[in-house]
Amino acid sequence: MKKHFRLPFDRTCIACRMVRKVDELWRYVRHPDGMVVLDSNGVFNGRGAYVCQNDKCFELAIKRKAFSRAFKKAILGINKGVD
Ligand SMILES: [Zn+2]
Taking the domains of the chain in order of start, what are their residue ranges? Predict the structure, then answer.
């Protein structure tokens, strides 16, 4: 059964599959044009992909094509959005 209330934890990194709190993850969303961008304020609705806040997981996610898997759609580009 799906739970619809939002908890401030329990998201899985799409790269390493670690379950972490939301504030320990970067949230990415896919725009309709195929660009994946950082959703730093949580303003975009819809499916988000979560990555640990480190370069290793971000690059691993790209290498494994985890973003397109997470969104179940083709990705045209990814804007990391953080340094
Ligand atoms: Zn990770």
Answer: 11-79
CA 32 to ligand 1 centroid distance, Å: 25
Structure tokens at 69: 């898997």
Q: Any idea which fold 11-79 has?
A: Hypothetical Cytosolic Protein; Chain: A; (3.30.1230)
* Residue 4 CA, ligand 1 centroid: distance in Å: 24
> How much is the pTM?
0.84
Q: Report residue 71: phi and psi, to 5°.
A: -90, -10
Ligand 1 mean position, distance from CA 60 (Å): 8
The answer to whether the CB of 67 falls within 8 A of the CB of 38 is no
Average pLDDT over residues 29-55: 90
Residues within 5 Å of ion ligand 1, judged at the Cβ atom: 13, 15-16, 52, 57
Closest CA relative to residue 71, chosen from 61, 57, 82: 61
